[in-house]
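Appendix B, record 7
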Amino acid sequence: MTVNAATTPPLGEILTADEVARFVARVAYPTSPVVLVDEELARTTPARAYGDWRGALGLPDLAEKARTLLPETTAGRAAADTDTDSGSGA
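Structure tokens (predicted):
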């Protein structure tokens, strides 16, 4: 099974309304850190890319949620199935 943007769950399906509000507040204000997302990494390994991004924004609980609820790769495996790297990521 191939996972693409059309089949990746939107934020509202993996985060609660309060978690979405925290995430939006964190990226919307000029005091938040500027953290870029590697688009190619996000397309091929969404769990790692979005987990690392939220972790860099200082939202470790949302980072863990992204790592476990988003597909690990575009092959569709869940991140928790084969997590050998906790996402220390670069």
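Remarks on this record: The helical segments are 11-14, 17-28, 39-44, 46-56, 60-69. Residues 11-81 form one domain.
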